Amino acid sequence: MLARSAQGLYWMSRYLERAEHLARLLRLQTETLVDRPLPEIHVGWTRIYDLIGRRPPTGELVALESDDFALADAYTLADDLTFERSNPSSVRSCFALGRENARQMRQCISAEMWTSLNVSYLRLQQREIHDVWGGSPEGFFAETAAAVDTFQGIAAATMYRDEGWHFMQLGHLVERAQILASLLLSQIAADRSVEEASEEGWTSLLRLYHAFEAYTDRYSVEVDPEQVADLLATNQLLPASLVQSLDGVSAEIAAIGPGPHPLSSEETQGEADDLASLLHESWPVRDDTEALLREVNDRCRALHDLVTACYFNYPVAHALPR
Amino acid sequence: MDFDSYDLDRSIYDEMLLPDGTHREHCREVYEALRDLSPEELAVIQERVTRTFSTEGITFTVYGDDEADERIIPVDCVPRVVSSSDWEHLETGLAQRLQAINLFLADVYGEARILEDGVIPVDLVRGCPQYRLEMRGISPPHGTWVAVCGTDIVRTNDGFFVLEDNLRVPSGVSYMIANRKAVKTSLRRLYRSARVRGVEHYGSMLRATLAELAPEGCSDPRIALLTPGVYNSAFYEHMFLARELGADLVEGRDLLVDGGFVYARTTTGLRRIDVIYRRVDDDFLDPLVFRPDSLLGVPGLMEAYRLGNVTLANAPGTGVADDKSVYAYVPEMVRYYLGEEPVLQNVETYLGRRPEELEYTLDNLERLVVKRVGESGGYGMLVGPHASPEERSEYAEQVLADPAGFISQPVLDLSRSPCLIDGRLEPRHVDLRPFVLHGQKTRIVPGAFCRVALRRGSLVVNSSQGGGGKDLWVVD
Fold it and tell me: In 3-state terms, what secondary structure has residue A144?
């Protein structure tokens, strides 16, 4: 397949995955706003801004002591994270970028995929924070996340399993692994800043990954940070666990097969395999969870660069017919 | 819907009604169906048609002062109906015209007999900005310079006339198919009973045409569609056609030339491309030959083309035959090359380069449409009767400054077709752009992109100027 098309599908998936995560995090956060204490609300915002690496429009995030201020802030922050066009990581921007990539690569995806994404995009374009905030923000964020799930479901049901499909999956899995590693790191950091680890933060991570039932089933109703991290990192049955994502990354690269240059192809597959083995081999015997998660994150970034160099931006000299 | 209040003007050809207000025979089914629909029902149909376009993202891009806007072409749900006998006449005329034009192009880039024989002035052809010296001595496969042509045709009380031959990168065919798809599913029963001839096989015809033009010895050609990119106003169409063709949709940066062959950059390496259906203008094809600042093109592409290793459709340099001044000579070309009388007439055209015609133009501005020879899309033209005296005298100055840069034509009473406007049926001016394909033989689907001037009284149908589209039905 055309290198630029493959790259477009890869990025489309990454952006949509990002939009979905952000929408789900915002949904949890809007629920938190209803009845949780202010420090917890503060941790929630910090987690989201850390994840996307952005400074909030209010300057620094400070733990507020007045409900009124916190709620006024919440409106501004939610707008910034959801609709702000100048914020490249807002839900709207990520969705628009995903859709723009799809628009340019429309001939590579099924018509049903395009229609579903385009309709969701048009709907999202019509929304603004004031109408969302005045109604049911939870419902809005749930709908937005569901739009991406629906798109992925339609893709699974309709898309030809060609290279394009595998590049889409690759983008989706790399993004997902990086986000989960970042969220775990952010939660660990949040725990460190307070005297007692917050059970709510970890609970919300479980909910974010549809893992609460799996957790109580496997462990107990008592939420223990170590066990939550373990579950989210290594559970084979959890579709979004780190191990699932990284195993998937390695399998997708194998399915795509070598690029034009043998050395670069070997290196890319090797890195993907090593990354997956971090979870299988190093995670169970780790002494420093944070260091390991940081390694996962760094190596995901390195893998992204390898994929780009191997399949998309390879030097032409390597690919000329002899 | 009632036709009683329909604003029928007996002096203007109406596509559905006869001057006495009864329907034309070939329009019976559509007329009766419209008559039996309530305004509310028709409004629902219109809404459904419009929604199809936004849902499917069938858009074109309009460039305003500072930003590009993704817009939907307004499509009227009431089809324009053409009888099969009219269609046959059009088909014959179009095929004849394209045959003559291809012979003309081979001639002016080859022996130039037509110029030597004085049928067309030498300086008109050689001085035309679209004449490409680089094409001298090149013979494209099967003598096909123009593989895809989108001819603009209008109808008046005197019959059909060719308004313009679009021979470079004509667009609009995706709208022909999209309009059909949206309208036929919204008027299901009528569509079936009216026995409308299909247009949806255009893609496979285009594929067959392009395959016929593959370089010699290439049995299973790899086709690519070269687009200027997503910012081009016709990007939707490029994507649509690439899909229909099973071709790669490439931009210049996806291609490279090595050893005289063209390759596309794929995830597994470079893959050879044999036929390029290019939707990029000549100027931007190859920075080594044409505009050096072009980022859209492929360095070395023309070299590969000259070597016969890749086919470009349409060939570069075809614009010399659709220049608005050269257009005036197409009927002569038909007589000269084919020894036949043209089946389709030109609109009477006065060339600014001829002193007596220039004088006529300047004396009759209020009755004429004046166009710049190098412009298209309805830009830079003066519709005399609709312009103010100041606008006319201002325009006259421009004409005087560069007479050869202008042509004029009488204002035609373009035919009108019923459209749903504000809940009522009202007549609006229409034209049609059928698409003619030529590889080793000519192929034409029975349909066209029918453009409609949606503003009351307007004669300008261009989508960039407030025009819309309509489905066109050729019925048996």
Answer: helix
